[in-house]
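User: Here's a chain of 374 residues. Predict its fold as tokens.
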Amino acid sequence: MELDKLSEGICKTGFVLENRIASNLKQSGWTVISNKYYEDDFTSSVREIDLLAYKVSKVQQFDVYTTLLISCKKNESNAWALLARDINLKDPNSDWWPLHAWSNDKALQYQLAQAGCGKTYHDEMAELGVIDALSIPAVEVFAFQEMNCESGLPKNDTNIFNAVTSLMKAQAYELSALPQRKKKPSIYQFNLISINDSDLVRLKFDKEIIKPEPINSEHYIARYIIRKSESFSRIRFVKASHFKATLADYERLHNANCKWFDKTYNRFYDGVVKDSKRINVYLDEFRNRVSGPLNSKLQESFGKNIQSSDINLEWNSEKNRLSITTIQAFGDDVYDFLNQDEHSIKIAANALKKIYQYSGEFRFTDFWDFDIPF
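Assistant: Prediction complete.
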């Protein structure tokens, strides 16, 4: 056996590229997982993603993960041609600012679910210095082809299409698997990168002219049906020789993610007790924390019971204070007692501070503490 030929032969595969990219990531401080397998939701077959890399930092009480899902392809004879046209950022049928993030923290979940969160994220990340990793696409990529470098003949889009769909499906798998796998408070933000060890060319369609332009990177917003739902994802095509230069901006992305999710988390608690929707996010936790001690007090002093579901929180704008209300009216003597009982006050105050970060004025009242206009 001529062992040198084995070494030469393996160089014709994509494994050398994959190893080089993994080495670049590790040298830049990323944790790398190679050849991770997942189940294809359409074919129920097992598929593979070449590289998963991440950085993690502690922010407040949660961990921030910036995650890169990477596909590596090599083709010595064919260039990747990305067919493009002018972009319309006002197209109502496209989402040019997709944000794929997951968290098991309820405050962050609420913030991520708000309309326009993706656009806000991209705008504010740009202000934090993220230049290339999340840049608005310069053109609309509407198709792609592998084309022979010598003859220019088109082959097909199979390898490029497979790279794109494998990235999107791997992302969907990771997002669906995290709720079962992750228990520690966390937030994950995903980025999809397709690396090609060949020429990367933009073919720009402008009326009757098709202008070829060599490029190092291109952002493509892909639309695909994942788990029977339409999904938009950002795929960044990167020429292999340019990948190492892109890592600095993904470093900035992770640092910016830490700042942005910290700020977003704080936004949730800013004025939270004045917003019934945000109050409801943690209302069950508040009820569970205070209902037992309050019920014991009422039984001991008045022979009355209070159910957890009876307790609500309402902001009284006229009196500029928070009211801990009960659906069941107990009478003024009960509320006067609760508002003077140090133990009950301490239980409620600690719960409000712990759950809502609120340390302002509050009162125990019945539901009718508020003026009814009709």
